[in-house]
Amino acid sequence: MTEAELERCHLVSVDHESLPDAIRSAVDSALEDGRYESDALLFDDAVDPERSFLVVDDAPYDPRVDADGETATLELEPVDVVRLPEPAVISVSNGAERDHEGRVALTADDGETIVAETVSLEPGQTCELEATDAFGSYELTARALTGHEATDEFGFRIGDSHFDGSVTVSDDGISATQSVADTLPCPWDVRYGRGPD
Hints:
Layout: E1 13-15, H1 21-33, E2 36-38, H2 43-46, E3 53-56, E4 59-68, E5 71-78, E6 89-94, E7 100-108, E8 113-121, E9 126-130, E10 136-144, E11 151-158, E12 162-169, E13 174-180
Parallel strand pairs: 1-3, 6-12
Antiparallel strand pairs: 2-5, 3-4, 4-5, 6-9, 7-8, 7-10, 10-11, 12-13
């Protein structure tokens, strides 16, 4: 495999098992020895070490590639969680014909409150709340504190294909949803018969 045969992966969370053999071998050496040095390191041609995390047996690592002359060094630092490059946001909109006050809460599976905000919006107004950049599952709860006082709950996830959320207050109620994208595997993902080995 050569640099010319690789295309950089767009995913934030890259699974160790998806890597082509030559790159997986370098990663395995870095895991075993604490670092891997080479004058032909392909890791950063396939994975963006500034953006992506490598996941090995459900354990996330933050990859670091340092180049010194013609030699490049790969190091993998264990981290608690994979993180988006920028935190997801929750957009709160008032689609009703009256002013509304609403409460938006984002709670992690372990019960930790990530977002707990009360917002006041005029008709047609929108505001954005910073959510989190940590991959995982959350509960998004939206409650109108005025008018119909409706509540909606939504299973919210942060991941490569799940990110920003939205809460909309209308004359009839309130709804909480999330943006979800179809995500293709890395262009060289060996689990899908892609890419050279």
